[in-house]
Each structure stands twice: as C-alpha cells, then as structure tokens.
Automatic annotation (TrEMBL):
Pfam families (alphabetical): HATPase_c
Keywords: Kinase, Membrane, Transferase, Transmembrane, Transmembrane helix, Two-component regulatory system
UniProt-recorded Gene Ontology molecular function terms: protein histidine kinase activity
Protein name: histidine kinase
GO biological processes: phosphorelay signal transduction system
Catalysis performed (reactions): ATP + protein L-histidine = ADP + protein N-phospho-L-histidine
EC number: 2.7.13.3
C-alpha cells in the first residue's frame, strides 16, 4: 500500500516530469521547424502541434490508464515521421528534434509504470527511432551512431528508474516515520487520557465516599444526622456515574443546587437564573465547588457557607466563602488531594483555573472557566 509521503513524492515527480515534457516538446519542436526545409516546414509544424495537443490532454488526465499506450503510439508515429520531418544532417550531428522528445518521454515513463512496462515502452521507442532514422538516412542505413544513441536511451531509462526507486524508498522511510510518530502520539494521548481518568476517579472518590466515611470515622458527625443517608446515597450516585452525568450544554446553576442539597452544612447560593456551559466544564465547576464546601464543613468549623456564581466578561466563576479561622495555603502537604486534585487539577483539565485565599477572617475558593 502506498503511503501518503510516497504518493505525494510520486505526484510531485510526475507533475514536474510532465511539465518538462511539454517544455521539451515545445523547444525541440521549434528547433525542428527551424531546421526543416521550406517545403516541409508546414508538415513539421503540424506534427509538433499534434504532439503539443497530446500533452495538453495529458495535463487533464495524467493518471488515466490510456496515457502510457497513448505515449507509446505517439513515439512510434514521431519516429516514423523522421524521413519527412528530420533533415539528414540532423541525424549525423545528433540535433534530431524527434530524438530529444523520445529520450525525455521514455525517461518520464519510468515514473508512471512498473519495470516490465517501462522496459517494453523503451524497447519499442528505441526500435521505432532506429527504424525511422534508418529510413531517413538512406545513404548509409542504420549507422553506428544511431545504435549508440539507442543504447544510451536504455541507460537513461535505467538511471531514471533507479532515481524513482530511490525516491520511493526514501518516501517509504518518511511514511514509516510518520506512522511511528502517529502511533506514539496516539499511545501518549491514550496514556494521558488514562491518567486523567485515574486522577478524576481519585478526585471523585476523595470528594465523595472517602470524605463521608472519614467524617464518620473521626466523629465529625454523630451518624444519625438526617442528611447523612442522603449524602451517602448521593456519593454512590456520583461513583456510579448517575449524578453529574451530563451531555451537551448543561445548566451550572442546576448542578450547584444539587451540591447545596447534599451538602453537610447550609449553603447560601447567589446565582443567575441559569448559566449554560458545556457539560465537562459545568460538571468540573460543580465538583470543585462541592469539594470546597466539604472542606469548609470539615476544617473551618462553620455551619454555613456562601456560594456566589457569576457569568460576566466572558468568564464563568464560582466563589465559595466561609468565615472560619482560615489556614496557611502554602503549608498544605502535596500528598493532600483536596485542593490540588479535586479543585486545581480538575479545573486545569477542562481549561479552567482556581485560586484559594485564606486568612483569619475566613477562606475564599474561586474556580472559573473562560468562555473564549
């Protein structure tokens, strides 16, 4: 199977060769017209015009099946016309305009055919040239110089074929390198997606069941609170993907209402009637808000937080404020995932950002996502 790089190399090579053929036919044909005696100049001009017309057709359909047979017929006819279109002196000093066209055409053919077809076309062209030249040079017949030219034409075709093989081999190396790079990119993307999924799973586990069980285990709740059963059920829904499982555009305000409903402390929410976002961003903002509310309940010794939602200047933001004693943000161990994993990394993964400010008067956690 031909790869993209090899196909492009062949396409460019064939295009330049076809352009070269047109230039050679035009220039060599002009020489032939100038060389021709006045009596045959019109006939030579007609032959040159027919050859140019054929090449115009080739520019329209360069890859058609009939191009190689058509080229072969053209070469045979050109060679057969030598007794009428090429003066004898041009045969003797190698200024034969037909020879120039034949040589360049068979060289170009090697880029459009297999080895067997290329050799066959070359053999037919050389035989036709020698026959036509022999008929034109009636004084000496097929002179030794014609044979040398024929053999050299085979050599030219061999060099052209070798160049084509080398170009295609180099292009295949490029195709293999591109395929390996694509495989590496795909593997890296898959690994990154797996790591992101693992991080999200760990963050979700940290935000839900782990936090609830830890609160019960440390005695932060008595165990008979009316909200605890609902919180445990909500944790299970999140872990099983039933809660926050959204597609398309999603109303962030609705998701935050779910966060407030299952929160262990009171949540005073100030928000527009609706804020519609892509599902991934809306869910990330809601989950980061849930973690900020849970942290306030666990560490700030408060029974109430405020949540302020804004959608202005192309940025959607959520601020969670508490009036607790605050903490030193820089002193939080790296192993703690509450802020780093459940808020910072989560927002970064969806193109958002977060900031935490804490002091003696309380803590403010801000998460935001720019629309543009």
């Amino acid at each position: 199977m031909t790869g993209a790089v090899e196909a492009e190399a062949l396409r460019v090579g064939r295009r330049y060769l076809l352009t070269g053929r047109i230039v050679v036919v035009a220039c060599a044909g002009l020489v032939g017209i100038v060389q021709a005696p006045a009596a045959t100049r019109g006939a030579v001009a007609a032959v040159v015009a027919a050859a140019l017309l054929w090449h115009v057709v080739l520019t329209r359909r360069p890859d058609a099946r009939w191009t190689v047979p058509g080229d072969t017929v053209l070469l045979v006819l050109l060679c057969a016309s030598q007794p009428f279109t090429v003066p004898v002196p041009a045969l003797d000093d190698s200024t034969n305009w037909v020879l120039a066209i034949v040589s360049f055409t068979v060289v170009a053919t090697q880029w459009n055919t297999g080895i067997g077809t290329g050799v066959a076309v070359t053999a037919v062209a050389v035989a036709a040239y020698l026959t036509g030249a022999g008929l034109a040079d009636t004084g000496t017949g097929v002179w030794p110089g014609d044979l040398q030219i024929g053999l050299w034409t085979f050599a030219e075709c061999g060099l052209s074929r070798a160049l084509c093989v080398l170009v295609r081999a180099g292009a295949r190396v490029g195709d293999r390198a591109a395929a390996e790079a694509e495989d590496a990119r795909r593997s890296a993307a898959l690994a990154a997606a797996r790591r992101a999924d693992e991080r999200e799973h760990l963050a979700t586990l940290h935000d839900t069941a782990a936090a609830t069980v830890l609160g019960v285990g440390l005695g932060m709740v008595r165990g008979d609170e009316p909200w605890l059963a609902a919180r445990a059920a909500a944790d299970l829904d999140v872990l099983e993907g039933r809660l926050y499982s959204e597609d398309g555009d999603t109303d962030l305000v609705r998701l935050l209402a779910e966060v407030a409903r299952h929160a262990p402390i009171a949540v005073a929410t100030t928000a527009p009637a609706a804020v519609h976002l892509p599902a991934a961003q809306a869910v990330a903002l809601a989950r980061a808000t849930r973690e900020a509310v849970t942290n306030a309940a666990r560490h700030a010794a408060v029974d109430r937080v405020s949540v302020v939602v804004a959608d202005a200047d192309g940025v959607v933001s959520v601020e969670v404020r508490d009036t607790g004693s605050g903490f030193d943000v820089t002193a939080v161990p790296e192993a703690r995932r509450g802020i780093s994993g459940s808020i910072t990394e989560r927002m970064r993964a969806v193109g958002g950002r977060s900031a935490v400010h804490s002091g003696a008067s309380g803590t403010v956690v801000r998460v935001e996502w720019p629309r543009a």
